[in-house]
Design a protein that fits this description.
Blueprint lengths: L1 H6 L2 H14 L5 H12 L4 H21 L8 H12 L4 H9 L6 H13 L5 H14 L1 H18 L19
Helix pairs in contact: 2-3, 2-4, 3-4, 4-5, 4-6, 5-7, 7-8, 7-9, 8-9
Length: 174
């Protein structure tokens, strides 16, 4: 498929990504938002197409991981795709949403993603922290990232810190 994608023009690739998500029951507006963001930033259409194709794949993986969840909506899918793109596996995503109230799901997924990608916490540990916070209530869930950051400040950065997405200046050779 990659060879045929490279041969297609970027607009055709974007249209194909829109069709694939629509066929999977995912709102195409989640793809349209990425296209609009890329255009607003002046990014070349071929790069936008590549981003959109990755996003479509992540949305599909998130949809599959969260299949069977009641009331699944665009916010859940978008947060789920962010989680997939951050390296959170489908089983962890599924385990998280099974214990979450519908209204808390996008926040819970976003917090899990933050703890893993930005704070460097391994997925199983981050999942335990988020599930524990969900048990304490919505406020505990919302404040978990700042509490994790404060704990990190006290301990120092984890091994491997300084990767892209970290604090400004992290990992710069100086």
């Amino acid at each position: 498929w990659a060879g045929s994608a490279a041969a297609q023009d970027p607009s055709a690739r974007i249209d194909a990504a829109r069709r694939s998500v629509a066929e999977a029951g995912i709102p195409p507006s989640l793809i349209d938002a990425r296209v609009a963001e890329g255009r607003a930033k002046g990014i070349p259409l071929d790069r936008i197409a590549a981003v959109v194709e990755r996003r479509a794949a992540a949305l599909g993986a998130a949809r599959q991981a969260m299949a069977g969840a009641s009331g699944l909506n665009a916010a859940d899918l978008s947060a789920g795709a962010d989680a997939v793109e951050a390296g959170i596996d489908g089983a962890s995503l599924r385990a998280l949403i099974q214990g979450a109230r519908v209204e808390d799901r996008p926040v819970a997924i976003a917090v899990l993603t933050y703890l893993h990608r930005e704070a460097g916490i391994p997925v199983p540990q981050a999942l335990r922290s988020v599930r524990s916070a969900m048990g304490e209530g919505p406020e505990a869930l919302r404040t978990l990232p700042s509490r994790a950051a404060a704990a990190r400040e006290r301990r120092g950065p984890p091994q491997g810190a300084g990767r892209p997405g970290g604090p400004p200046g992290a990992g710069s050779g100086g």
